[in-house]
Amino acid sequence: MNVSQVNPGQPVAVVGAGLVGAGWAIAFARAGLNVRIYDANPHTASAALPWAANQLAALHRHGLIDEAPEAVAARLTLADSLAQAIDGAAYVQESVLERVDVKRQLMLDLDALAGADVVIGSSSSGIKASDFANDLTISPRVLIAHPVNPPYLVPVVELVPSTQTSPETIAFTDRLMRGIGQSVVHVRKEIEGFVLNRLQAALLREAWALQRDGIASCEDIDKTVRDGLGWRWSFMGPFETIDLNAPGGVADYANRLGPLYHSIARSRTEDGPWDDALIARVERDRRAHLPADALAARRDWRDERLMAFAAARAKDGDKR
Amino acid sequence: MNVSQVNPGQPVAVVGAGLVGAGWAIAFARAGLNVRIYDANPHTASAALPWAANQLAALHRHGLIDEAPEAVAARLTLADSLAQAIDGAAYVQESVLERVDVKRQLMLDLDALAGADVVIGSSSSGIKASDFANDLTISPRVLIAHPVNPPYLVPVVELVPSTQTSPETIAFTDRLMRGIGQSVVHVRKEIEGFVLNRLQAALLREAWALQRDGIASCEDIDKTVRDGLGWRWSFMGPFETIDLNAPGGVADYANRLGPLYHSIARSRTEDGPWDDALIARVERDRRAHLPADALAARRDWRDERLMAFAAARAKDGDKR
């Protein structure tokens, strides 16, 4: 790991210790960094440690950490206050509630407490940094660092500057994130949903519409992805996929299939199919397939699959 | 394998022996069926056999077939004519050129030659069966059976009836495809692009637009999928993904995130961004990332990754 832009022994802080924040704590600690964890709710903060210990044990079972889980867990400490958490920290990862007023209040608090150097990344999955982090002393040092959950398994992180973020802040966070093993995506302009959730939204919009129009069942739409489309997308993005799918590369593909895709796009210009009747129907379909009392067990299955996937990736050296 | 609806020894026919047709031949032969291969171009047909032998050897190396590759290859035979190919066949998989006039002519020929029982599946990836297969004696026995390439690795197949396809034809093809190990998706109404290419089109539309608007580079958009979104989609579809992503399941998720997705959908109602300048820019980006003379080697890499992915799936019993 190259986390050399953080001084030896200098901690990072995790503020907000729900699933996302606690997941970040593991990602940082696994890479050798000392992590201070703070949550306004002390119960949430203290629950994060046994949860992390469990996850670290699972990572060890899957061969995803070499160190003893206890050695990694020993780098996690709880802080009693925001001030204590960020005192001397090189970086703060903010993962509080996804609400603009809550994030703004935290930025005001950090503005009053933070040193002149600390960089602050926000886990916001959709709210732009400019909506809560501007016009403060810290503003040049705040940006979005949006993970996929859990960040210690799925490597992608979107870095999205506000209109006031400095280039140095982007460069620092890029190095830090690559240093702990994340895959960094630079979103160059603020846009609702950033890149990841916009791509997911586009696919979901079509999926909901196909269900609404009686074209295919939820389960058959799911099969189309998990037994078809998703295979290539698990190791190649959409541009590389089509680049390799025509003899002459992506331009050749676009010229051959552009008219079909254009026609499909023309057929889907209404602005969104998520009405209550449709939601109720999809909910019924899903519950027929997976009863509500089986959701928790299925989430455990998903997490095991993600760990197995990460282990397989790590094993083949993540050949890309 | 349960291919019991095909009589013992009764062959299936593959008409059109390009990459898709030859891939189908492997999928059928691997399951124990005798396959007759015909292509109007004799060079294409005879090239299919050594190509299939190579692929079967690779499948064997990856532990994806138990039989000796030669034993599977021995079930593939070339036919000198369309009549010879389909004589006594239980099923014909059509994989000729994706052009409505070419497919219509083949249907006219099959109508003149085919017995009263044979079922005909078309590999068409976008053209509806009603556009080329209607108003013939065989019409009730024709449907779309659209694979992902290669069908012997990626299991999904979309069955799409024409307006004249009989329910028995759908049921027969469903059993046959499940019998040879495919994952069957039923598309209940004819729609351009069916389900798979519509979902791909939706994601690509957003990807092209993000590139066009300078939000992110091709490579960063690709990373977002291969290091993020694509992980879950390789073993769960989009509905299951969101069903597990909110405490109360899919309706809970839709109520929480519906407004965000709706807003994203409202921002993307123009009908398609694939203009020549954009295509040229994406082509430049991709060629900077992967030179044209490296495309072939990268396709080999992709095929190896797909085989490794299939082997990993088979190993864990394809737990779903």
From TrEMBL, chains A, B:
Gene3D superfamilies per record: N-(1-d-carboxylethyl)-l-norvaline Dehydrogenase, domain 2 (1.10.1040.10), NAD(P)-binding Rossmann-like Domain (3.40.50.720)
Transmembrane segments: 12-33
Domain spans labelled 3-hydroxyacyl-CoA dehydrogenase NAD binding: 12-190
One Pfam family named in its UniProt record: 3HCDH_N
Gene Ontology process terms (BP): fatty acid metabolic process
Alphabetized UniProt keyword annotations: Membrane, Oxidoreductase, Transmembrane, Transmembrane helix
GO MF term set: L-gulonate 3-dehydrogenase activity; NAD+ binding
Record carries keyword Zinc: no
Record domain 3-hydroxyacyl-CoA dehydrogenase C-terminal: where: 193-254
Protein family (similarity comment): Belongs to the 3-hydroxyacyl-CoA dehydrogenase family.
Protein name: 3-hydroxyacyl-CoA dehydrogenase
